[in-house]
Amino acid sequence: MTEVDSLEISNFKRKLEVEFDIKELGKMKNFLGMEFATSKDGIFVNQSNYVLDLLKETGLTGCKAADTPIEPNVKLKTAATNEVMDKAHYQRLVGRLIYLVHTRLVIAFAVSVVSQFMHSPEPTHFEAVFRILRYLKRTPGKAILFKKGEHLMIEAYTDADWAVDVNDRRFTSSYCTFVDENLVT
Fold first, then answer.
1. pTM of the prediction?
2. Do residues 101 and 165 share a domain?
3. Same domain, yes or no, for 93 and 128?
4. Is 20 part of any domain?
5. Which of 1, 25, 36, 66 qualifies as a FRET site for 134, CA 20 to 30 Å off?
6. Band (185; pLDDT cuts 50, 70, 90)
7. How many domains does the chain have?
8. How many Å separate Cα 80 from the centre of its chain?
9. What average pLDDT does the segment 137-146 reach?
10. What is the band of 1 on the pLDDT scale with cuts at 50, 70, 90?
11. For 91-115, what is the mean pLDDT?
12. For residue 182, what pLDDT band results from cuts at 50, 70 and 90?
């Protein structure tokens, strides 16, 4: 960091102190269930404690780990009304998995699939959620690295799959955004 950068940061902090009651807490280590570590390469972000707590909460700490977050070519369907299971429990689990996607991008597709059934989950939907959790058991401490960049370059990509949803024949789309070669969305 240059002397100019340090001066700008100090000026910014003083302006914040005028408007808000703030404290300097030093380098960030934990924030909202995420753990941060800095190195010469960049910033590592993980949610290992979050994963371990989730596995403990669901009773899966001693389970056999899965190789993939979702069965290949799985086609989940909307539940018949008599098969609907504990909706609130399902929504809580899927919500926690959605938060975990911030540092575990590899589960993003699987989580998007199971999140489509939050209004009426059936046993196969719960099985899919538990498979994601069993996959997470394999690498609870996995982190994502945000590399230091030389330049500010933003790239975005998108894709769509028409009529793939077996329930309503709607399309599914996705996107990703990179800043300095770091996947951010």
1. 0.75
2. no
3. yes
4. no
5. 36
6. confident
7. 2
8. 30
9. 87
10. low
11. 92
12. confident
Model confidence over 36-60: pLDDT tens digits?
999 888 889 999 999 999 999 999 9
Q: Taking Cα atoms as reference points, which of 153, 176, 152 lies closest to residue 185?
A: 176
Same domain, 163 and 175: yes
166 part of a folded domain: yes
Residue type, 34: M
CB 171 within 8 A of CB 161: yes
CA distances to 8, 28, 128 from 13, in Å:
9, 16, 47
